[in-house]
């Protein structure tokens, strides 16, 4: 009888349930979007119960449509949007809505902590910058708003909440990668840190047990029978696993709305001198660390060209348009529409187009959008190398990896071999791998030895490398550096 794995991929705008066979070939998926709440500028919220319903319904539908019963499922793996948090009581009643990772409501509070000189100790313990992006300040905001006793509430990122709901309150755990994004975990020791809890005024709050990524997260009985939950990881770490980046220096990049590059930095923590984040990559046995750099606008650049500039009806058309451009065009785009991420961290920067002439048109601006993503990727890879990592190739996934012109351009710009993942969505695959490891069906070595790309791109000499220097010059003018 055939056996299967299910990945629950809980994202920022939708939830997916994905079915894999025992060889980790994707067979089917179900997806459901849920509502985004924007109560004021800079505030982003989700309804946790709506998220839960989307997960339950997609998983139930996936099993029904594929005539798969609970006894046919070896185990479930979970991957999720990171940093988003919620609080709930011992009856499972959620306190207010979840505060999403994109939310900026605690920016002033974070600046106050910086003024007190506390960012250094937070970074030393967590590898993170002091920023409202991370979970701790959001939890403090919820407690202060509602004036509740933290001892009466459970703290959780999305993974913890889903495990709680799936096991009907019997399991209160998080994995180490999600925990590492809260600003409360000492990533050297892999434990919650009392000093950090005091800094964020969260002492007494009920915190989940921190476990390895491939572990026993309990059993769910809500789909007609018992199914084990054997693997959990935050989305970018799940992508690192799905891309098979298990050796020091291996780098993956997920090109979605934004772009997240993550480099395996080995079993000893690597601190960045180039304003990258030091974080936990995964833990199967010992902790494996990673360096991470974020680009805020990748696929979103092409959505902007489609939706606001009316350059084309489908994003996929951007590829053919860019091919028509004068490849020596003087047009360059700085896509700082929502500020700049790593390595600049300039939240107040805004987008700009430089070098327009009367010969400039849609094709040249489309080309500039492609180049801007490649140039930003090169910046972060240079930062990895500046921090001492030797990068020999880049493994990519995400929607933009379907753009063959971009893939070759990227290889030319970064002068590295570019390997496309066998699936566009490696996050769900990574969660399936963890479910397989956690249930004893496969090992890390099995996955590493059998990772095969669907396409490979070698750098060539057709590209004018001075274009990157010109783009960098415009960038420095824009941000005043």
Characteristic key phrases:
23 strands; 7-stranded mixed beta sheet; Nucleotidyltransferase, domain 5; alpha+beta; 481 residues; 2 domains; globular
What does this structure look like?
This protein has 481 residues and is α+β, with helices and mostly antiparallel strands. The protein has two domains: 4-234, Nucleotidyltransferase, domain 5 (2-Layer Sandwich); 244-420 and 451-481, Nucleotidyltransferase, domain 5 (2-Layer Sandwich). The protein is built from 15 helices and 23 strands. The chain has helices at 48-65, 107-115, 119-126, 136-146, 158-166, 176-179, 194-199, 235-242, 299-307, 317-323, 362-386, 404-414, 426-438, 444-449, 466-479, and strands at residues 4-10, 14-21, 26-33, 45-46, 73-80, 85-88, 94-99, 154-157, 173-175, 185-186, 191-192, 209-211, 219-220, 227-234, 251-255, 259-266, 277-283, 287-295, 332-334, 352-354, 393-397, 417-420, 455-457. The strands form six sheets. Strands 17-18-16-15-21-22-23 form a seven-stranded mixed β-sheet, sandwiched between helices. Strands 3-2-1-5-14-13 form a six-stranded mixed β-sheet, sandwiched between helices. β2 and β3 (26-33) form a beta hairpin. α10 packs across α11 and α11 crosses α12 (404-414). The chain is globular. The model has no long low-confidence stretch (mean pLDDT 92).
